[in-house]
Amino acid sequence: MNKIYVVGIGPGEYEQMTIRAERVLRECDIIIGYTVYVDLVKEHFPDKEFMTTPMRQEEKRCHMALKQAAAGKTVAMICSGDAGIYGMTGLIYELKDRYPGVEVESVSGVSAVISGAGLLGAPLIHDFAVISLSDLLTPWEKIERRLLAAAESDMVICLYNPSSMKRKDYLKRACDIVLNHKSAKTVCGIARNIGREGQSFSILNLGELRDTEVDMFSTVFIGNEQTAVIDGRMVTPRGYRHG
């Protein structure tokens, strides 16, 4: 069919995959993705052909998918969360002109900013910014400017990739920047292993968050001035009761 579906598979649980994503994976010829993500779906599609690459081989993975599609296969390139939010849709489009005749379609999924917010309560009821702390592709100086601007505007901030083996102090550095414009008592939340074994969440304040250890499977939420803890959950009012 000469087509690639770039599919967001959601946070991990099969039940949190969209109906359309599941249908595309069932109907495609081959499923391609990062090894960890393929392992999340493999048992549900045992009759499919799978191809994988390790982390940090995104371009190789996209070429692999495009070559299979150019050869006449219907390909599903899977991404965690949503394919268009820190996913592979953009890179597939960037490389697509080398493979004439290949059609690309993005299939939306539930991103960590959405599923993590649901786990914590309702932290995103008002304006928010999503910022990745990974400086593999974005200079840290630019990340700092984005953090400062989001904090100054009093938006809720969702942090992806808050820490790794090589970036253990990045969350602390981010909190120090945000503390320029937000109180240390600002309500924050951490969603861990969303949709996977070991799923959990915690609610704390910004001062406490600064000294908390997280990992790449954590998504961090920093509230705005109105964010509060209600019934043990993180809630950002939008102002409906005062409208």
Distance between the termini: 52 Å
CATH structural fold name of the largest domain: Methyltransferase, Cobalt-precorrin-4 Transmethylase, Domain 2
CA-atom Rg in angstroms: 19 Å
Give the topology string: H per helix, E per strand: EHEHEHEHEHEEHEHEEHEEE
- The count of domains is 2
- Which structural category do the helix and sheet elements fall into? alpha/beta
In CATH terms, the superfamily of the largest domain is Tetrapyrrole methylase, C-terminal domain
| Largest sheet report | 5 strands, parallel
At the first level of CATH, what is the class of the largest domain?
Alpha Beta
Strand residue percentage: 25-35%
| Residue share in helix | 25-40%
Count of DSSP helices? 8
Query: Average pLDDT, to the nearest integer?
Result: 95
* Oligomeric form: single chain
Low-confidence stretches: none
Number of strands: 13
Strand order of the biggest β-sheet: 3-2-4-1-5
Looking at the overall shape, the CATH architecture of the largest domain is: 2-Layer Sandwich
Approximate shape: elongated
